[in-house]
Amino acid sequence: MSGCGIKVLSTCKPSEEKAYCLKVTKQLGEEAIRLAARLGLLRKDLKVRSDNVHLFVPLNQKPTPTHIGELNEALQQFDVGVRGFCRHIKVRRTAFEIAGDRLPPHLLASFPRGIDYVGDIAIVEVPPELEEHKGVIGQAILEADGHVRTVLAKSGAIAGVRRLREYEVIAGSANTETVHRENGCRYFLDIRKVYFSPRLSYEHSRVASLVGEKETVIDMFAGVGPFSVLIAKTHRDVKVYAVDVNPDAVRYLQRNIVANGVLGKVIPIFGDVRDLVQSRLRGVADRVIMNLPEKASEYLDAACEALKPQGGVVHYYEFAEGPNPLDSARIRFAEALKLTKREVVEFLSARIVREVAPFKWQVAMDVRVR
Question: 289 in a domain, yes or no?
């Protein structure tokens, strides 16, 4: 057979893709594949097919007369045709599998399984025994996940009133500014300059779903706006005062308000929330969000002053320990409230958000007070 004509060699199934191909006997198959690759004709994203006698090698274009001449010289017997081919299904290896080729076997058990993704940044906690191999860990994560641009290792605890953490770049770009997508919103942020936890995604949507139309909300520790922006985006008639003491957080918050189309519904305010309640936010809120688990109890008096005189709902977060963390959190809240002019009407809900250390949990409570 000569390769001068183009033949339809089979019908194409809906799941297949049509492409030019070389039809050769199986004995010539290996040589045909090598030759097609050398001529720049081999289409690598499609699978080579065969029947009882022939091999069908997918091509990325119709062979030119020059190609045909070289094919004739090397193969002598072939056809050029069009037929359907299946695509290669690429199975992406996990970071653990990639690291398994590069780490000593006895250290694999310590490979970090919990990875937080903030936009195109991956964040891990590297255990001490893997400290000298953190570059391997970072590169494995980078290779395993195609959308990751930067891998950071936690190098310190969350600290300070701005709730910032130290990070070390262990793979990829040193740029730590990103865009995180969550619950239909976009958040611009720099993870080194602001606090943001992707693990609170459910809390953001849960609290937003509880807000009623025409409510006024004060987000006391707003950060870049994951509570405030989502509330405004999912309600037509609300007003949210979003407060933060970190100027970088407020700068990104302002950008996120515009990016998510909630300008005028979210009012960003820079400053200490206690001072701001005294000066301009006393008695205006139907609902207050207190996502500062390290120090929320210290600001409960300010939250109570921010509520309207008839009362409202406080979404309160704290770290709790012991065998019954929810019960102990309720008791501490009620005790702290005694120092204000408010009282608990009802604990609407209480839930453990996540474990932050052995026998230590972040707790969320929704409390109606009057």
Answer: yes
